[in-house]
């Protein structure tokens, strides 16, 4: 924390990885300092940011002397150090489903739709290739999530409380709809979860458009 | 009955006699139902789970799923795991896929040989390494992605793609682990980071002629990993479904 005792979060408004951590911080009731890093302008490579996080990854959390990067690592750190408002259920098998859902998002979907990859697809394969690529990989992941969560979902992904899976799902579904106009008809459970997420203050406050670095038009 | 922790005192055949602190007495648990692992010898995520099972001394039944023959899409497998993902484990009533989720589940259910340090900062480094490997590297160089890049951009394009993403990830790992590595990635014990790194590093230089000299720490770790029995036993060539498969990359034949 800074001398005022605040956590600092290095974040980009539109980054779904940053969005996940913002939700976690909100759920746990943290008043944190928002430190914007403009990924489009390459600010993650700036000397100032590299001093904080030598590998230049966003999001990054600063808690006193400790710097944690990677959204999953940050969330697990927060969960263990600040146990208020748990982000994981106690039941072992429900926890495992949360880990699986989070990883379907973070390993099978999100990396394939990040800025660098989409730029490559557009430039090397063609501008018409971007949308089919995105739809294919999001679609595959969403279809898997529909099956995975079918027997576990309640009001939220794995029951009636918001847990880790929801922290990963909310930004992913929001991005799929807002950025890529994905047709959610084949994914009724995820569509329903999206509606539920948009009602939650902790998620609303974490939305890209509600961040200090969201461009004002 | 779900146990949060137990201490294995003796292990005659498959019956474990454990002292459970909560009930302050010895109890017997029949472990005859082994964990089943659905795995393909060549798959890096499967390799991670095999290492984790070996490190924890968990005896498991190897169930081969031939990914190149698309066996993961067949009704027989989909009945077990409707997502069609490999690796998957069946542990009693629990069916779980995704190497990261499986590893954390094993860590929580079977606490012997912890895969995570207790220090929160070191733990976070382990999670981060696992995710750099799984999300920033492996997710971009798995076979279906490479086949797409080869089809659309050509063989040279594919190799450049592999090198670019591996180089980016490896460069980050070298920096990240510089101040944390000991004998292994995050100290002198094998942890989650090593479980994810070993499969990624060990196969890579052979598969893609990847030049490891720029990554001295990862090169050193690779040599260390080759000496660890739990990692050796998990090698692709030591699996029941190992076969010599020839795949063409960049005009060269590579075998797995």
Characterization of the model:
The complex is a heterodimer of chains A (217) and B (256). Helices cover 50% and strands 7% of the residues of chain A. Chain A is built from 9 helices and 4 strands. Chain A has helices spanning 16-27, 47-52, 71-81, 92-109, 115-125, 130-149, 164-178, 188-198, 201-204; strands at residues 8-11, 33-36, 60-63, 66-69. Chain A has a 4-stranded mixed sheet with strand order 2-1-3-4, with helices on one face. Chain A starts with 7 loop residues before the first strand and ends in a 13-residue tail after the last helix. In chain A, 44% of the residues are buried. Chain B is an alpha+beta fold and 256 residues long. In chain B, α4 packs parallel to α7 (192-208) and α7 (192-208) packs across α8. The longest helix of chain B has 23 residues, at 155-177. Chain B starts with 6 loop residues before the first strand and ends with a strand. The model of chain B is unreliable at 1-18 (pLDDT under 50). The chains are: A alpha+beta (217), B alpha+beta (256).
